[in-house]
Design goal:
This protein is of the alpha/beta class. It has two domains: 174 residues, Glycogen Phosphorylase B (Rossmann fold, 3-Layer(aba) Sandwich); 173 residues, Glycogen Phosphorylase B (Rossmann fold). The protein contains 14 helices and 13 strands. Helix 11 links the parallel strand 12 and strand 13. It is elongated and about 65 Å long.
């Protein structure tokens, strides 16, 4: 079997794509090629994982200036042509679009050439590339039930997440007692708004929830300010620019304060962790807010808009949740019920079915 995975840009696109590629290779002996762009994180992660990567030239169409949109529209036909040439050379049995800049041209080229296609969509509202091809793809693997309505044929598979997240005990299984712990992060680069709000709320948080422990990934920009703030208050805290072992940090946490990108949401559900989501307000199609609200409706999370992220309110919310062990336990169970431990396996199997390839 030969498969192309197209797309990228961010870790939220590339990391699940690598998990799908690994499953295709392990279970079906697939040969895999990635198609991306020069600007994406795939340029570092894909070769490091041992896969070939070819590049098309295409930019953004959403949340950019009119000049950028015009340039992208001008480049798009060439990107589709180049992707088509790559498809001719590699002769894939299936093309899997994972979202991001390169996904659209590769999937369009595959549709034109009548090559089976599978769209992977981790957000509640599909991104632009997947919406563009939604009516034409052979199938779609989605994270949320409500996403299926955007595609003709869709299955709820979830988002591939490292197995270590699923091995974290639920709060209901955790030993009672100990220091209540809050994990705060905003992605690998940090989230300035969350960092600032945590720094502002520390005096009130110390008053309302004395004795708590905070693990905070700040990113590079705010690291020194956060370190000084925690030190000046004598707060029990661990401050990191970047956390290498995120499952270990999750395992310590009773509550997580974070953004609500698709990969983060999948990790929250896999780990069964109660969350305070602060959606990134400038995310394309406001997809982070929609993701967060999907978990909030199930009782697994609390959502606070960034514009309303005020220090005292954040301190009160954290303290109130930590003070209600019953609610935290219910949130933990609700989150885990939304998890998909076999996502990579199910997506790979779906790709094989779509391709019409005999399973071994």
């Amino acid at each position: 079997m030969r498969a192309i995975l197209a797309g990228g840009g961010t870790g939220g696109h590339v990391i699940p794509a690598l998990a799908i590629a690994n499953e295709l290779k392990k279970s079906y002996g697939a040969e895999v090629l990635f198609i991306g762009t020069a600007r994406g994180i795939e340029n570092r992660l894909v070769p490091a994982a041992g896969y070939a990567l070819q590049l098309v030239r295409v930019g953004a169409l959403k949340n950019v200036s009119l000049l950028t949109r015009a340039k992208t529209a001008f480049d798009l036909p060439r990107a589709v042509w180049d992707a088509g040439r790559m498809l001719n050379q590699f002769a894939p049995d299936v093309v899997i679009g994972v979202g991001g800049y390169a996904s659209g041209p590769a999937m369009l080229a595959a549709v034109v050439k009548h090559i089976p296609t599978l769209a992977f969509e981790p957000n509640v509202v599909p991104g632009f590339a997947n919406r563009m091809v939604a009516r034409f793809v052979s199938g779609a693997a989605v994270h949320f039930e409500e996403t299926a309505k955007y595609f003709r044929r869709a299955e709820v598979t979830g988002v591939p997440v490292r197995q270590a997240f699923f091995e974290i005990p639920l709060l209901t299984d955790k030993k009672r007692g100990g220091t209540p712990t809050v994990l705060v992060f905003g992605g690998s680069q940090g989230a300035h708004a969350i960092n600032e709000a945590m720094i502002r709320c520390l005096p009130e948080l110390q008053r309302q929830a004395p004795g708590i422990h905070i693990i905070h990934q700040t990113g590079e920009r705010d690291y020194n300010d956060a370190l000084a703030a925690y030190a000046s208050l004598g707060e029990s805290a661990e401050v990191f620019k970047f956390i290498e072992d995120m499952p270990a940090a999750f395992a310590q946490a009773d509550l997580v304060v974070c953004r609500s990108g698709a990969s983060t949401v999948a990790e929250i559900t896999a780990a069964g962790k109660p969350a305070i989501f602060v959606p990134f307000p400038r995310a394309a199609d406001d997809h982070q807010r929609v993701n967060a609200e999907a978990l909030a409706r199930e009782g697994a999370a609390v959502v606070v808009e960034e514009l309303k992220l005020e220090g005292v309110w954040l301190a009160e919310t954290i303290a109130a949740l930590l003070g209600d062990s019953g609610r935290l336990a219910r949130m933990s169970e609700a989150a885990r019920e939304l998890a998909h431990p076999n996502a990579a396996r199910d997506i790979a199997a779906m790709a094989v079915r779509v391709a019409g390839v005999e399973e071994n």
